[in-house]
Amino acid sequence: MLVAGNWKMFKGPSAASTFCTSLGSAVDGIAGVDVVVCAPDVSLPAALAALDGSGIAVYAQNAHWLENGPFTGEVAPEMLAEVGVAGTIVGHSERRQYFGETDETAARRASHALDAGLAVIACVGERADERDDGRMDEVLHRQVGAIAEIAGPHSRLTIAYEPIWAIGTGRTASPDQAQEAHALIRSLLDVPVVYGGSVKPENAASLLGQPDVGGALVGGASLDVDSFAAICLSASSSRS
Q1: Separation CA 193–CA 198 (nearest Å)
Q2: What is the pLDDT of residue 238?
Q3: Choice among 64, 92, 112, 182 that is catalytic
Q4: 136 near 126, Cβ under 8 Å?
Q5: Which burial class, exposed, middle or buried, applies to 140 when counting CB atoms under 10 A from its CB (0-12, 13-18, 19+)?
Q6: Residues of 203-221 as b/e, b for ≥16 C-beta within 10 angstroms?
Q7: Would the N or C end of the chain have less CB density within 10 A of its end CB?
Q8: Residue 108 and residue 25: Cα distance in Å, rounded?
């Protein structure tokens, strides 16, 4: 069971160090959960230093599909690996919405990061209008298919199902809705699938108890040590 906290554009190095020191103590002894924090690039070294020896992994929030080149503002997977980062998110809905990420570029990012030795959380999910029009299956087939074609099944690949209508909106997919989408994704690509979309301590247990939900990609609730630790505890309890 994987529980990853995506800090997005929050927590500079000082805040990251303080948070990670507290998190290490808060989740110590929680069994059966791989805990990950996904920090902004400038905070990766601070997070790595604070979590050294804790068993908590540090991931980036994005990585380019090439080792180097004239790509101002991008970071190569090899660079991340060199500083000790264990993995990265790719294809997050906010990257797709605001920064022109496509199914193809998300898949290329995933493939190259895997080749560079990183673990990958590749994000997929439908918009509100696509769900309302009954096109969830179509969207997931397209997005997961692109990742499967280029990256294929891989032991270090995880898919995050993020219904876009539930990200930062306070809305959350019901456990049955999450299970339906996760089962579909797993039928397309045999890798673990985690749920992302307004995961909170209050709803974590019901979501994580579904048979095809293999963990959570947590946004806002991952910015608070107590709430994030509570979600990790729910993940542990759901598999006990």
Answers
A1: 16
A2: 86
A3: 92
A4: yes
A5: buried
A6: bbbbbbebebbbbbbbbbb
A7: C
A8: 37
Q: pTM for the complete prediction? A: 0.97
- Collapsed DSSP state (helix, strand, coil) of residue 12: coil
Please write the tens of the pLDDT for every residue from 200-238.
999 999 999 999 999 999 999 999 999 999 999 999 998
Is 112 tagged catalytic? Answer: no
> CA 112 to CA 96: how far, in whole Å?
18
Q: At what angle do helices 201-208 and 225-238 cross, to 10 degrees?
A: 20
Q: Give the dihedral of Cα atoms 11, 224, 8, 97; nearest 10 deg.
A: -150
Mean pLDDT to the nearest integer, 89-95: 96
22: its two tokens:
């507290």
| SS3 assignment for 30-99 | CCCCEEEEECCHHHHHHHHHHHCCCCCEEEECCCCCCCCCCCCCCCCHHHHHHHCCCEEEECCHHHHHHH
What is the phi/psi pair of residue 131, to 5°? -70, -45
Q: Annotated catalytic, 92?
A: yes
pLDDT in tens, 102-135: 999 999 999 999 999 999 999 999 998 999 899 9
Residue of 78, 130, 162, 182 with catalytic role: 162
CB 79 within 8 A of CB 116: no
